[in-house]
Specification:
Strand content: 25-35%
Number of strands: 3
Strand order of the largest sheet: 1-2-3
Helix content: 40-55%
Radius of gyration: 12 Å
Structural class: alpha/beta
Length: 83
């Protein structure tokens, strides 16, 4: 179980997603889980998400859903959180 869960709702955020996820990798917290909720993105966000989940599966988790807005994406992320 992670000590801190970070939930990131993502909708067509490919242009800034790499920078966001890279910043999480350099955090000093060792016991961190990052739940990436793809809220029906139609750009290359899912491909970027998959890259991080594949290379850092101990930190990043992917959840896909149909577009429903940030609130529903956050709530779904909470359901997948271990913290």
């Amino acid at each position: 179980m992670a000590s801190i869960s970070v939930i990131i709702p993502i909708y067509n955020g490919a242009s800034y997603l790499d920078k966001c996820l890279e910043s999480l990798l350099v955090q000093s917290i060792n016991d961190l889980e990052v739940i990436l909720v793809n809220d029906g993105s139609t750009d290359s966000s899912e491909k970027i998400i998959d890259k991080y989940v594949y290379s850092h599966s101990n930190i990043f988790k992917k959840v896909n859903k149909e577009n429903g807005g940030q609130g529903s994406a956050r709530n779904l992320g909470i359901c997948h959180s271990t913290r």
